[in-house]
Design goal:
Keywords: Copper, Metal-binding, Signal
Helix content: 25-40%
CATH architecture: Orthogonal Bundle
Pfam families: Tyrosinase (PF00264)
Number of helices: 9
Structural class: mainly alpha
Protein name: Tyrosinase copper-binding domain-containing protein
Shape: globular
Number of strands: 6
GO molecular function: metal ion binding; oxidoreductase activity
Radius of gyration: 21 Å
CATH topology: di-copper center containing domain from catechol oxidase
Order of helices and strands: HEHHHHEEHHHHEEE
Distance between the termini: 55 Å
Oligomer: single chain
InterPro entries: Di-copper_centre_dom_sf, Tyrosinase/Hemocyanin, Tyrosinase_Cu-bd
Length: about 325
Amino acid sequence: MKALSAITLVSVSLQAVLALPQAGLSPRQTCSSPKVRKEWSKATQAEQSSYIQAALCLATKPSKIGLKTTLYDDFGYIHALLFGQIHDQPSFFPWHRYFLDVYEKALHDCGYSGTIMYWDWVADSAAPAKAKVFDTVRGFGTNGTNTREHCLVDGPFKDLRPAYWNGEPRNEFNPPCLARAWEPGYPEFGVIEMYGESYSPPVLERINAIEDFDEFRRDLEGGPHAAIHGGVGGRDGDMGLQSSSPNDPLFFLHHAQVDRLWWRWQQQDAPRRTFMYYGPKQDGVGTPATLDDILPMAKLAADLKVREFMDTKGGPLCYTYDS
């Protein structure tokens, strides 16, 4: 009888532990008034203008990581420096969620009071070039020139001069201009510009139905996420070279959309999925990822654990999305 009671007690204790959030053995405190991130086209002109001016302001601020370039360049440099640690593995989601938070705080230091916004490229997948995010006044400008350099020639960011390409100083082979090279569409073959068919509603519906975390991450990262990079940047544009893609301010709206899609997936079964995190690391041996893994930020911000960025209303985060 005593042995049976002991087994029962262990069983009950184990169930209690398993019922606790995976972030730790005690419930996490959540924020009470989360800010709401909205889609770019739903923002007012004043909000869009304030965001754009703050993004431009980053190019006037000194580096925070000891470079001789600007705070704007810090983001592209760090993304390239850490590229192999933050892509093609589970940390892709939480690291970029943290990166967005760091960028948002930098915008606040430049006078912007709102949140990062997102570009809902799913809604624009049938005709990406007509998306409001590419407006030349209220958006991020259109395409680059039809030359080898593909330099952006319109919009508020046409005069930005990224200092690094794949983490190295620019040279004559990658001129210091913000470059875009949209992939053309071929309507006669049913091919939409900027690979729009790769992030259409049916594609996202299929991906969103996946219940396994690592499979969901792999399909979203390798499918729609990669298609936007290649479709907007092409082979020679900043968005096209994923390591240097934060050179284009549009990167942050793109990744806010990726974060939103992960957030929506988490919300479908929040008790189970909020801290669902696993899969092999790309470290040569496939070490299993854990919530205690460190997300490096290369001196731009503190290195923190994955668990801090799984819940958008817990830890250092306090935001949600409008839909």
